Amino acid sequence: MYVILTSKPTQYRTYPGADMTPIEVYDYLDSGRLVATFVIASFERETRVEIVDESTPSAVNRVPTRLLEKFETAAAAAKALRELAQGGRSHAQLVRRQDTTVISTR
User: Fold this and answer.
1) Residue 10 three-state SS
2) Is 70 helix (H, G, I), strand (E, B) or coil?
3) How far apart are CA 94 and CA 29, in angstroms?
4) How far apart are CA 4 and CA 2, in angstroms?
5) Structural domain boundaries, residue 35
6) pTM for the full model?
7) Is a pLDDT exceeding 70 seen at residue 106?
8) Is residue 106 included in any domain, yes or no?
9) Of 31, 51, 54, 91, which is the most buried if we count CB atoms within 10 A?
10) Does some domain include residue 13?
11) Is 41 domain-assigned?
12) Across the chain, how many H-helices and E-strands are there?
């Protein structure tokens, strides 16, 4: 199974849980400004993702993957992400990163 994890700078960061593997990473830019980062991650069994609120005071939530939208393939997740991005602003673009090693698990 595959899920899309979202992080928004200065708001919150989402980290893949145990037994999850980041497959693809995308930056969502609006007029060149980073609005969000999306990670397509694979997993074999239900696990949890960690969402860290970056506001003060910060909070950490561990959300089960059973609550997230799941996709059968990475291609299906990427298609859903592209469709979501197309509905955005005219100056917005979705840019795939070449390197997924920039994603760290906590």
Assistant:
1) coil
2) coil
3) 6
4) 7
5) 2-98
6) 0.89
7) no
8) no
9) 51
10) yes
11) yes
12) 1, 7
